[in-house]
Design brief:
Number of strands: 12
Number of helices: 13
Helix content: 40-55%
Radius of gyration: 24 Å
Largest sheet: 8 strands, mixed
Strand order of the largest sheet: 6-5-7-4-8-9-1-12
Order of helices and strands: HHHHEEEEHEHEHEHHEHHEHEEEH
Oligomer: single chain
Shape: globular
Structural class: alpha/beta
């Protein structure tokens, strides 16, 4: 067996049944299958300490990040260019936080591969990190296996230097969560009430800003104001993650539509993605598609019932590997309607295109369930003269979620620290002047 094959094969599961803890979305009771990540690695005391440490770190960062946002909010009325640059910087800080949570509390192997369409864009650095060379503006779609999917996709943005330009479509209820909700509003995220009459004008406004935003400022992309601002818009066409309840909903929808349901993914809904692509038409050239699989989930089981918050972050049982398969599609090749009010035939053409991509995902995930790995691109292209500028496929890149430099963590506290220093200096100067003035009067 080659080294590449040995890297791709999942490890053998333990055969000792264990209880599945219930925290968040999990189910309690005796496990029908052994846990894919093995036995509990930390006892009750260590779990409690890990819980305390993770909550303390999370609250500290959230409060600090939101404070940083509030400190910079007056820039909106002073100079919008610098306001949006500042908010992109604060979004980078949140991306760094996401990486630390994964790196410190749920480290796992990440296995990356892709097809020929992303050849030359997946690179393993000399120190073992992943570097992606994706464009500054794209729409990203993915299957939704687990609550943590978006954490790994934000990390992918970090590997392209785009973690300050991520935009996500979220449920409206999250907008009212203290600290987190206002923070996401500063980030320009799009909130959906799942009522199209209410959501459409809101989406239209936000997407128009994403389509036309140009700013002469730092973090505005390679050409500054000469081109549109960077934007990575993440969309889950399934609308929710895979679970027992959503599996039933997908089956009912399939029956209603007279089509066959899937096993490894949910049926995608095309309305939201179609509307986004229509509003962004002419401003985005590529859709990047990621197929995600977590090692060890048995057939018929669901990741959310196995990799709960407790098992993943506190018991030391994250997935043994997170596997990603990347490909991209030119927006120009997608059958998009030519009008803002598409006919049923035009909408159906796009729906068929999206369904075809999900059938391919189903096949990829079936292959992963059978072989323990996704396909990998080992080919090569030639650029320029023969023998010069060869672009090779990445094959399998095995890496982990981590920061390029440990000191990036300090950026999270940089603005409040600088404000504190300035205020302290101002206070000391005030005291000195007051003392000097009192001595002069005396």
């Amino acid at each position: 067996m080659s080294r590449r094959q040995s890297l791709a094969k999942p490890s053998t599961l333990q055969t000792i049944p264990e209880p599945i803890p219930d925290l968040g979305a999990g189910t309690s009771g005796q496990a029908a299958e052994p846990h894919p990540a093995g036995r509990v690695k930390h006892g009750t005391t260590v779990q409690a300490l890990r819980l305390l440490a993770s909550l303390t770190w999370t609250l500290l960062v959230l409060v600090t990040a939101h404070t940083t946002q509030l400190l910079g909010s007056p820039l909106y009325v002073v100079n919008k260019d610098y306001y949006y640059a500042y908010m992109a910087f604060t979004k980078q800080l949140f991306g760094i936080f996401i990486i630390t949570i994964t790196q410190w509390f749920s480290p796992t192997t990440i296995r990356i591969s892709g097809d020929a369409s992303v050849r030359g864009q997946l690179v393993r650095t000399s120190d073992g990190r992943l570097e992606t060379r994706f464009p500054e503006r794209l729409v990203m779609i993915a299957n939704h296996q687990l609550y943590s999917d978006w954490l790994y996709l934000w990390w992918i943005a970090y590997t392209s230097g785009m973690h300050g330009h991520v935009f996500i479509i979220l449920k409206e209820s999250l907008k009212y969560v203290p600290v987190i909700g206002p923070g996401m509003m500063f980030y320009g995220f799009i909130f959906m009430a799942r009522n199209w009459v209410k959501d459409r004008p809101r989406m239209q406004y936000r997407l128009h800003k994403l389509a036309e935003s140009r700013h002469h400022r730092p973090l505005s992309g390679e050409q500054g104001g000469e081109s549109r601002d960077p934007m990575w818009l993440m969309i889950y066409p399934e609308g929710t993650n895979l679970s027992g309840n959503t599996r039933k909903g997908s089956a009912k929808w399939a029956e209603k539509q007279g089509i066959k349901d899937f096993e490894h993914v949910l049926l995608p809904r095309s309305t939201g993605l179609l509307y986004c692509l229509q509003e962004l038409k002419g401003t985005v050239e590529w859709i990047y598609d990621c197929t995600v699989a977590y090692e060890g989930i048995p057939r018929g089981a669901y990741g959310q019932d196995i990799f709960t918050l407790r098992s993943t972050y506190f018991q030391g049982r994250p997935p043994k590997s997170v596997n990603m398969y990347w490909r991209r599609f030119p927006v120009s090749s997608i059958p998009l309607p030519t009008t803002s009010n598409p006919s049923p035939q035009q909408s159906e053409a796009f729906s068929n295109w999206l369904s075809a991509r999900w059938k391919e995902k189903e096949a990829l995930l079936e292959g992963y369930a059978r072989d323990g790995r996704f396909p990998a691109d080992d080919g090569h292209d030639m650029e320029g003269e023969p023998g010069v500028g060869m672009i090779k496929g990445a094959g399998f890149i095995e890496t982990e979620v981590k920061l390029a430099h440990w000191y990036e963590v300090l950026q999270i506290f940089s603005v409040p620290s600088m404000v504190w220093v300035v205020v302290s200096i101002a206070q000391n100067i005030g005291i000195f002047l007051s003392t000097l003035l009192s001595g002069y009067k005396a």
